[in-house]
Amino acid sequence: MTRIIEYRDALNEAMSEEMRRDERVFLLGEEVAEYDGAYKVSRGMLKEFGSRRIVDTPISESGFSGMAIGAAMIGLRPIVEFMSWSFSLVAADPILNNAPKMLYMSGGQYGCPIVFRGNDGAGGQLGSTHSWCVEGLFSNVPGLKMAIPAFPADAKGLLKSAIRDDDPVFFLESERLLAFSDEVPETEYVIPFGQALVRRPGTDCTLVSFGRPVHFCLEAAEELAKEGISCEVIDGRTIRPLDIDTIVASVKKTNYCVVVDQSWPFGSPGSEIASQVHQHCFDDLDNAVARVHSADVPTPYATELEQAYLPNTHRICEAVRATTYNA
């Protein structure tokens, strides 16, 4: 059985269910308790779990991230909420230089079962310093896992897996998806990392994406279908680990590939995926892999410019037409 709920409520259910299951799990961050979360993701959790497990912190990402890493080292399972992943940059040392390396540096003595989660990417006129897509920066670091769910059911299933994982997990959400509603199972379930999902089957071109741009890809596929171009849309769901096998199987069928990534183009997850597709599918490709990214400029503030800056439906359609020689 399923029901229709918002993305934010799927996140809330995942955290609440895991906190009921495991008393070591707790949530901390700015405004997560008394205010019910800046985006109401933790609504009602303070009332159920109390202030020892739903912890309001000062505006000090470096401080509370470091504290949470220490808690994870002694056996707790913290969930750290960044109001925005843009703010995680001031916590780069603890979250990138400590958490992913802890097990290795301690010779296996100390793990770091911790989840860092929050809003990633352009949230709608937040300006360039509040609109970072951090996956291009952070996925480069070994020792961490990274999930970018596009749909509420995946947000819940992947977050439950993240909380149970013994490695640090970077969980990237989108403010623009928090109010998006879709079917979510009522029964207990988890979604393993490293398993991509074919969102829409197709025969003429493979579209690969993560997070919010998956929705742009589905819109583009619908538009291109009117022109007789059948696109297979793959939702990668996790970047670390990356399910390259599902992507390769699709490209071997369609012979064309367009990767859609909201990161900037240089050194991005999109460029890594394109490289791996070329490596594994060289003899199957009828054209080079195309990439659609956010423009290589700081995120604009103006609404129209921000929409043009993102890997939008129009730009994806143009890339597919050019790649499949239908321009």
Give the overall shape, derived from the CA principal axes.
globular
Tell me the CATH architecture of the largest domain.
Answer: 3-Layer(aba) Sandwich
Number of domains: 2
Kindly state the number of beta strands. Answer: 14
In helices, the fraction of residues equals 25-40%
CATH-defined topology of the largest domain: Rossmann fold
> How would a textbook summarize the main sheet?
7 strands, mixed
Give the SSE string: EHEHEHEHHEHEHEEEEHEEHEHEHH
Strand order of the largest sheet: 3-2-4-5-7-6-12
Low-confidence stretches: none
Strand-residue proportion: 15-25%
| CA radius of gyration | 20 Å
Q: Count of DSSP helices? A: 12
Instruction: Write the CATH homologous superfamily of the largest domain.
Output: Thiamin diphosphate (ThDP)-binding fold, Pyr/PP domains
Q: Could you tell me the mean pLDDT?
A: 97
Distance between the termini: 44 Å
How would you classify the helix and strand content by structural class? alpha/beta
CATH class value of the largest domain? Alpha Beta
Secondary-structure topology with pairs:
Elements: E1 2-6, H1 7-21, E2 25-29, H2 45-49, E3 54-56, H3 61-73, E4 77-82, H4 92-98, H5 102-105, E5 115-119, H6 135-138, E6 145-147, H7 152-164, E7 169-173, E8 181-185, E9 197-200, E10 205-209, H8 213-225, E11 231-235, E12 238-240, H9 244-254, E13 257-261, H10 269-281, E14 290-293, H11 303-309, H12 313-323
Helix pairs in contact: 1-7, 3-4, 8-12, 9-10
